[in-house]
Design a protein that fits this description.
By secondary structure, the protein is mainly α. α6 crosses α7. The longest helix has 44 residues. The chain is globular, with a radius of gyration of 22 Å.
Length: 464
């Protein structure tokens, strides 16, 4: 009896009693009235939530982890990866806690409103849309690389980018994350399979495809790398990108059947993601050394490149459709929130929804075509928008909910947590400024190279 009583008290403290959860199926603090006549936005289970979380992370970032290890070396690279994993996992956890305490929160712009008023809402909202649109552009670029690899560059790369934009736009128009979750399952299985194929292949083969093919070759991997500031910050930005699904977790939690299960979904997600990143990063870099390709799927030679990209394409499609769906859903909810059209199958509902998905897809297509170097685009997006979206808001959220407690009773735990939040904010600021600078320098260098990629180019972008 005492344990049941204690459990009830904890639920009531979080504003999430069983009756509250059940009643939220008909009336939700975000979506309003949910009826059988319209889409059910609250229909994602905890396991489906874990898969959606993983799919927002595994897909693009992992393909550049071995290159980041090449810049930093194996030991510093692993330490940095684990450190970023720890910070982002804490940030993800804070999102779950904050969502239970403030059920009306749908996106990071709601947090901005609570922290900084109207300016915060507008700033965070714009940052969220830009972030996921740039990530969607990275996804389209990744799909074009895959199509080039599988088809042996059958047509102009600009055509492949356009095809990827059209297909992902159509798929992203599926209305709810509950209906998309099965695509996330398929995509996650495919991308994991493709990466495992490459990881095994580079271990079996004598040398990576980019290495000299004549004479004896030994991997030139580095335990501790000797790198420049630009390369180091670019590598760190790439790692941030690999964990930067964090801003999407607000929207995913809002569509859970029971947000109290968010914690178990997060544990599954971060455990699988971190373990996979470490294994892939170390093994692929160990066998390829400085000749590792970006994306990493091109490291094992022409034949394995076709095989790995053949498996990866469904995974890249699933990632990119989610990346388009998230900012489109955010804009859609903000336009129709409080209106009957949000959850009813009306002309306004469908016109608004399709307008949002098409608009985001077109913007992402322009980004993918204008910055056609995969590694540079990944690091730029990770630095410029990944760090301020994954570090600063979550530290501020903890301070928002707990600052008053320190005025009443300033405990050791409270003091340590305030210090931790300050560290997260400062670390995020450093990575944002340094990483953005490094990424811009790298992009400029890529354009200066003889034969380098150009905007709307027809050149084969699958060649490492």
């Amino acid at each position: 009896m005492s344990s049941e009583s204690e459990k009830k008290k904890q639920e009531e403290a979080l504003g999430a009693t069983t009756s509250d959860v059940e009643s939220s199926y008909s009336h939700d603090a975000v979506f309003g009235e949910i009826t059988a006549a319209g889409p059910n936005y609250r229909n994602v289970g905890w396991l489906g939530t874990a898969v959606l979380m993983m799919k927002t992370q595994i897909g693009l970032g992992v393909l550049s982890i071995p290159v980041a290890f090449d810049a930093l070396g194996i030991i510093p690279g692993m330490i940095c990866l684990i450190a970023i994993a720890g910070i982002t996992t804490w940030s993800d956890y804070i999102i779950g806690v904050f969502k239970l305490r403030h059920r009306e929160v749908y996106g990071i712009d709601d947090v901005g409103q609570m922290l900084f008023g109207k300016i915060g809402r507008i700033g965070f909202g714009i940052a969220f849309v830009l972030w996921w649109t740039f990530v969607a552009g990275s996804g389209m670029l990744g799909i074009s690389i895959g199509l080039n690899a599988v088809s042996s560059h059958a047509t102009c790369t600009a055509v492949f980018v356009a095809v990827s934009a059209i297909v992902t736009c159509i798929l992203s128009s599926i209305q709810t994350l509950g209906r998309i979750s099965w695509l996330a399952w398929v995509g996650l299985s495919c991308i994991l399979t493709s990466i495992l194929i490459v990881t095994i292949a580079v271990g079996i083969q004598n040398r990576p495809s980019a290495a000299p093919q004549a004479g004896v070759w030994v991997s030139d991997y580095k335990i501790i790398g000797s790198t420049t500031f630009v390369d180091a910050t670019t590598a760190l930005s790439t790692m941030v990108f690999a964990y930067a699904g964090t801003p999407a977790f607000f929207s995913i939690a809002s569509e859970m059947r029971d947000p109290r299960h968010y914690g178990r979904s997060l544990i599954v997600c971060q455990s699988v993601v971190t373990g996979f990143y470490i294994v892939v990063g170390i093994v692929v870099y160990y066998y390829c050394g400085s000749y590792v390709s970006s994306p990493a799927l091109g490291s094992a030679g022409p034949t394995m490149k076709k095989v790995s990209y053949g498996f990866a394409l469904p995974g890249l499609l699933a990632s990119t459709l989610i990346f388009i769906h998230l900012p489109a859903k955010y804009i859609f909810v903000r336009i129709l929130q409080g209106s009957k059209h949000l959850t009813a199958n009306t002309f306004v509902h469908w016109g608004s929804w399709l307008g949002c998905t098409i608009g985001i897809a077109v913007f992402a297509y322009i980004i993918a075509s204008a910055i056609p170097v995969f590694g540079d685009l990944v690091s730029l997006v990770g630095a410029l928008m990944g760090t301020p979206m994954c570090f600063h808001p979550m530290a501020s959220m903890w301070l928002y909910d707990n600052w008053a407690q320190g005025k009443v009773l300033r405990t050791t735990r409270w003091t340590l947590m305030v210090g931790w939040c300050m560290f997260v904010i400062l670390a995020g600021t450093f990575l944002m400024i340094g990483g953005t600078y490094g990424s811009i320098v790298s992009i400029i260098d890529s354009y200066k190279k003889s034969g380098g990629s150009a905007a709307w180019s027809c050149a084969d972008n699958s060649v490492a």
